[in-house]
Structures are given as structure tokens and as C-alpha cells.
Design a protein that fits this description.
It catalyses: tetracosanoate + ATP + CoA = tetracosanoyl-CoA + AMP + diphosphate; a very long-chain fatty acid + ATP + CoA = a very long-chain fatty acyl-CoA + AMP + diphosphate. It holds the Pfam family AMP-binding. GO terms for molecular function: long-chain fatty acid-CoA ligase activity. The protein has 625 residues and is of the alpha/beta class. Among the domains are: 49 residues, no CATH class; 136 residues, GMP Synthetase, Chain A, domain 3 (2-Layer Sandwich). The chain is 33% helix and 22% strand. An 8-stranded mixed β-sheet has the order 2-1-11-10-12-13-14-15. A 7-stranded mixed β-sheet has the order 7-6-5-3-4-8-9, with helices on both faces.
């Protein structure tokens, strides 16, 4: 092994001045060493579990034997111990065993953030049944599609009345599917089965491993659906092997048995149900589970429960920053927050005000087979893609040149892709090992599966996973999320990143949040920039228009400065705090379709002015923006 290997792998023989010498030649090498060291420690744990043939439910049952009285889930000031959750999971398994389902067949659960989600999932896992995590906010066509696409044999729904009404609305369309209802008396409703009564009628006897004989690491453990911000939700297959990829993420940032994780994102989401729940079980730790995110109760929950790690998604922390400052803002035991979607414009504000030691922004995809994470506290970064990590990490990642509008990689005269140099941006991809190149990412969607694959990237025959994300690579090999391909638009021959413009706009104190997108203007090429803005409470629109114009002029190139502004009473986001812009794009800048205040940019008067129907018609006729 050469000296470089010894430094990177942390083995003996290269210390002191040797490390200093390498740091002089490669200033970023320390970050690689940190990542590899923590990654190797975390993977050693999950590798051992897999070498022993264990699945997530095996680890849970070991947790029960080791610490039966320890709190597994704390929910609404009640402690649900490992032992109690196991008893409930055994009841679920006993009841489900009567259905005659085979290992790998699917049961869908549509349950809110509550302990019953956890023990229902674990109970079905005891039988080797795959569990589809259905988003409890979807309705009608999206709900029917979700249930059919994952081929659910049974549906179990939670006690929330909104969930019941959503299912009742489409009951005739899924008439062949038995529906069990938790928390409700449905004896008088012939189309439903009373879950609670049936569960009480069976014994919580421990289910033997023989009940799930036949489960392999390629067997589906669950299905987690894409958000559905574009098109219908798509069921991503989470195999038992992938479960340990999720679990490794929490181990990577140091979560162990003594730690307490605070989870407010929905459990049907990758961050909470994947990294959070599966990571908690693998570490044998405790999860504080909240039904919904509440900015007002957030820090009270964290302090009261001695939380050491926090999960986040999307724009969650923006709501915490909007709270009035409090003397206890930085009083807590939090070691790190972990998640994805934290925009750079509030990163330092949040970390400074609330005294957060570490922000671990992750990058990955529910469909992917690996991910990366910022373990160096580099502001705005979501991980690293360096030559050294590509050499020693199991699945190499690269940034390649891409047309941001078409999403197609740029290929040279020989048909191969070109890597982006440091300081550049492009499409992030990851290698797919030969053993997994035939595996599907989505259930039943061949077209989407193929869209996720790039072939013959650097050499004939190689295969890579396409994340579909634009990423910037800095000089130290840290990566920064720029935009989803498709969210980027082209104006005046230039490509515009919606995230970049939104970050600049949100830098104004008067703006709570910004959602940027491109709209079509007749007679022009590309799309004109438009920003839907949510202002802070008490801000008068007329008083800040000139400030917005000046701020954009000073901080954005001309082609990226938004031509239209739309002021919202509230920001439209998904349940996982992702901004929704599909309807905004369709409505464009048409005052006859939009009731929100609309403004247009006038460079001759260096300000934004109200967009009336008359001016809208003039713009459509002139088309000379």
C-alpha cells in the first residue's frame, strides 16, 4: 500500500509531517479523510449485519431483547418502548398471516405520523411482506394510481378522518382491495374492516423467522413514492439491501444507541421513514415523533426531550427563522441536523442563531443506490465528489457536462461524456455495479427506469445512474445543488437556475420565501423569469418594489432578473416542504387567471409596476421584452 493509501484509510505508518505534506499539496485532503473514516466506521456496522444475513426487522427484534424497556418512540408525551412496539407488531403479523400473502407481495399503509405506522410496518416485515408508504395527502386519481402501481393486495388506513374520506371517495375504483380502518367504528360500513377490533382478537405471540423465510436482500422491503410534483407519484422499490443504505446515513453522522432523534417530516418520506426510522432501529436509539411540523413547538420539544439529532426537509428551517428571537434559541443538546433541501440563503442565519454545531446536508435520490453528505460543515454543500473518494468509495460519482434544458449529456466526437472541471457545473451521476444493473428502480414503469440510466458514459458498456440534478463542483471538490433539470429555464440564450434566483431574492429581509420559474411569452424564445414571493408579515408591497428591483440588478445578470412578480398570501409547498410550481407555470403572468397581486419589470423606470389586463395585452401584442 502506498503512502497516500495509508493516509486516506487511516492505517498506521503515515503521521505527522507526512500528513502535513499531503495537506500542502492537496488542501482538501482532510475532508476526504474525514468522510472516509466516518463512512468506513458506519459501513462496518451495516456490513456485519448483512454478512450475518439480517434484515431491519431482525435488528429491531435484537433491540427488543437487549433493551425492552427503552423508549423506541416518544409521541405526544407518551413513551412507546421497544417491547410495547414489538407486541403490537406481533399482533399485526398474526392478523396479516390470515391473508395468505406471499413473501414480497405488497400491503399499502396510509397512516399519519404516529406509532401505529411503525408497528404496522414492522409487523408486516415479520412476514416478509412489502409495505407501500402511501402519502396521506393525495386524493382521487393520484391515490388510485399509487395503490395500483405498487400492486397492493390490502390497504390499511390510519384514524385520521381526512384519510378515510379520501379513500371513501375512490372506494368503488379499488373495490377488489380489502380496506382495514384504524381508530374508527366501521362495522356498519360493509366496504371496510375494523382494524382495531381484529387486532385485539389476536395474540401478540412472537413470530419466528421461518415466517419470512425466502426474503433476500433483493426482496422489496417497502415502496416509497416520488413526491408527485410532476406527474403522478411513482413507487420506488426499496429492497432490503437499500434499507441498510438508509440506515448507514444516520450512523455516518454519529447516531448511536444513546442518541435521540427528532422527526417531524412525514414517515412516508425517504428522510423520515427511510433514514430516520430505519436508522433509529439500526442504532437502537430513540425517535421523538411528531404528527406534523410545528415551528411554535419545535424548540420546546427539542429541549424537553434532550434531542441530540434533528431531521429536516426542504424549507422547514425557514419557518423557524421567522419566529421572534428568544433567549433560549441556542439552548439545547443538538449535535447535528441532517436532511436535504436547506437553501444556502438561510444556512448561516439558521446555524448562527440557533447555535447548531453541524449541518449535514445530504444528496441522493430515493431511487439511487448510494448518496453523499456534507460532513465538513461547508456552508451550502451537500457532499463531496473527489478523485480520491471515487477511488475508495464503493460507488463512484461524477459531474458531467449536460445541456440543462434537454437534460442530455454533452458527448465528444467518440460519443463519450465529459467530466466537469473544478468550478464548473453539470449533471451528477453514479456508477451502477454490474450485479445491480438489471434491477428496477420503480415498480412497473419501464420508461422511467430507463430514463434513470446512462450507458456508455466513459467507456463502452459502463452504466451510470442519472440523478437528474444540476450540481456545482467547487475547487475543493465540494458539491452544491443548483437545480432540478427541468426547473432550469432558458432566456435570451442563457440558462437560468431557479434556485440561484430564489436564493438571491430571499436575501432581502422583506421576503420570507421565493419560488422562481419560467413562463412563456408569445413571440419570444425561451421562458421569461417570474417569482412568486411570500413577504414577511406587515410588509407593504408598494414600499419594497424598488428595493427588489435594485437588489436583483446588483446581484443577478440581466437575463436572470425576474420580469414578473407574484405576491402570495402563503407559499404553496408539498407535505415535505418542496415548493410547488406546476400550476404557477400554467397560469403564467395572466391577470385574468391570477387573483394575487402581479407586477412587471420596467427597466426604463427602474422599478416594478402593477400588471393590469391592459398592460398584459400590450405585452402579448408587442412581445419585445
Amino acid at each position: 500500500m502506498n503512502p497516500m493509501d495509508k493516509v486516506l484509510l487511516g492505517t498506521a505508518g503515515v503521521v505527522g509531517t507526512s500528513v502535513l505534506a499531503w495537506r500542502t499539496l492537496f488542501p482538501w485532503i482532510g475532508d476526504d479523510i474525514i468522510f472516509l473514516k466516518k463512512s468506513n466506521e458506519a459501513r462496518a456496522i451495516t456490513d456485519k449485519h448483512m454478512a450475518d444475513g439480517k434484515t431491519i426487522v431482525d435488528l429491531f427484534e435484537e433491540d427488543v431483547l437487549r433493551t425492552p424497556k427503552k423508549s423506541f418512540i416518544i409521541f405526544e408525551d407518551r413513551s412507546f418502548t421497544y417491547e410495547l412496539v414489538n407486541d403490537q407488531a406481533n399482533r399485526v403479523a398474526s392478523l396479516a398471516s390470515q391473508w395468505g400473502l406471499k413473501v414480497g407481495e405488497t400491503v399499502a399503509i396510509m397512516i399519519g405520523n404516529e406509532p401505529s405506522f411503525v408497528w404496522t410496518y414492522l409487523g408486516l416485515q415479520k412476514l416478509g411482506i412489502a409495505v407501500a408508504f402511501i402519502n396521506y395527502n393525495i386524493k382521487k386519481k393520484a391515490l388510485v394510481h399509487s395503490l395500483r402501481s405498487c400492486e397492493a393486495k390490502v390497504l390499511i388506513i390510519g384514524k385520521d378522518n381526512e384519510i378515510f374520506l379520501a379513500v371513501d371517495e375512490i372506494r368503488n375504483e379499488i373495490s377488489e382491495t380489502p380496506v382495514y380502518v384504524q381508530g374508527k367504528d366501521v362495522e356498519h360500513k360493509g366496504d371496510y374492516l375494523p382494524w382495531d377490533d381484529l387486532l385485539l382478537a389476536v395474540l401478540p405471540a412472537q413470530v419466528t423467522k421461518a415466517a419470512r423465510e425466502g426474503v433476500t436482500y433483493e426482496t422489496p422491503s417497502c415502496f416509497i413514492f416520488t413526491s408527485g410534483t410532476t406527474g403522478l407519484p411513482k413507487p420506488v422499490i426499496i429492497r432490503h439491501r437499500k434499507v441498510f443504505v438508509f440506515a448507514t446515513a444516520l450512523l455516518l453522522i454519529g447516531v448511536r444507541e444513546r442518541d435521540i432523534l427528532y422527526t417531524t417530516p412525514p414517515l412516508y418520506h425517504t428522510m423520515a421513514g427511510g433514514l430516520g426510522l430505519m436508522g433509529t432501529i439500526t442504532a437502537g436509539s430513540t425517535m421523538i415523533l411528531r404528527r406534523t411540523f410545528s415551528a411554535r413547538h419545535f424548540w420546546e420539544d427539542v429541549r424537553t426531550n434532550d434531542v441530540t439529532y434533528i431531521q429536516y426537509v426542504g424549507e422547514m428551517f425557514r419557518y423557524l427563522l421567522a419566529l421572534p428571537q428568544h433567549p433560549l434559541d441556542g439552548v439545547h443538546k443538538v449535535k447535528a441536523v441532517v436532511g436535504n433541501g436547506l437553501r444556502q440563503d438561510i444556512w448561516e442565519k439558521f446555524q448562527t442563531r440557533f447555535k447548531i454545531p453541524m449541518i449535514c446536508e445530504a444528496f441522493g435520490a430515493t431511487e439511487g443506490i448510494t448518496s453523499t453528505m456534507n460532513l465538513s460543515n461547508r456552508v451550502g454543500s451537500c457532499g463531496r465528489v473527489s478523485p480520491i473518494l471515487n477511488r475508495y468509495d464503493r460507488v463512484p460519482k461524477y459531474i458531467i457536462e449536460v445541456d440543462p434544458i434537454t437534460g442530455d449529456p454533452v458527448r465528444d466526437k467518440d460519443g463519450f461524456c465529459k467530466q466537469v472541471k473544478r468550478g464548473g457545473s453539470g449533471l451528477i451521476i453514479m456508477g451502477i455495479p454490474k450485479a445491480y444493473q438489471d434491477l428496477k428502480f420503480y415498480q412497473g414503469d419501464r420508461e422511467m427506469n430507463e430514463k434513470r440510466v446512462l450507458r456508455n458514459v466513459f467507456v463502452d458498456g459502463d452504466v451510470y445512474f442519472n440523478f437528474g440534478d444540476l450540481i456545482r463542483l467547487d475547487n475543493d471538490y465540494f458539491i452544491y445543488f443548483l437545480d432540478r433539470l427541468g426547473d432550469t429555464y432558458r432566456w435570451k440564450g442563457e440558462n437560468v437556475s431557479t434556485c440561484e434566483v430564489a436564493n438571491v431574492l430571499s436575501g432581502l429581509d422583506c421576503i420570507q420565501d421565493a419560488n422562481v420559474y419560467g413562463v412563456q411569452v408569445p413571440g419570444t424564445e425561451g421562458r421569461a423569469g417570474m417569482a412568486a414571493l411570500h413577504l414577511r408579515e406587515g410588509v407593504n408591497i408598494s414600499e419594497i418594489l424598488e428595493d427588489i428591483y435594485k437588489h436583483c440588478s446588483e446581484n443577478l445578470p440581466g437575463y436572470a432578473q425576474p420580469l414578473f412578480l407574484r405576491f402570495l398570501k402563503y407559499m404553496n409547498v408539498t407535505a415535505t416542504f418542496k415548493q410547488m410550481k406546476g400550476d404557477f407555470v400554467k397560469e403564467g403572468f395572466n391577470p385574468s387567471l391570477i387573483t394575487d397581486p402581479l407586477y412587471y419589470r420596467d427597466d426604463s423606470r427602474k422599478n416594478y409596476f402593477q400588471l393590469t389586463q391592459e398592460i398584459y395585452d400590450q405585452i402579448r401584442m408587442k412581445s419585445k421584452l
